[in-house]
């Protein structure tokens, strides 16, 4: 599966990766949650928690949705349920 994904990727210039992503501010009336796929996203998970979002975590990697789709789907289902019920 990863090979199929990687074969379809386009080459990007290095400058693309050096540019900072713009800050995004979400309205407080939008239901949000955060699925942390690896320890590398601990800071982002902390920000999500501080915003009152439910957070679920997996000890995988940033491409886990491709390599572990069942685990990611189950974690997303748990996260969506937490968003629906207001549980953290």
Account of the protein in words:
With 88 residues, the chain is mostly helical. The chain has one domain. The protein contains 5 helices and 2 strands. The protein has a two-stranded parallel ribbon. The mean pLDDT is 90.
Largest sheet: 2 strands, parallel
Which bin fits the share of residues in helices? 40-55%
What's the total number of strands? 2
* SSE succession: HHEHEHH
Strand order of the largest sheet: 1-2
Distance between the termini: 33 Å
Note the beta-strand portion: 5-15%
- Average per-residue pLDDT, rounded, comes to 90
Overall tally of domains: 1
List low-confidence stretches.
none
Radius of gyration: 15 Å
Tell me the overall shape.
Answer: globular
Structural class: mainly alpha
Structure annotation, total helices: 5
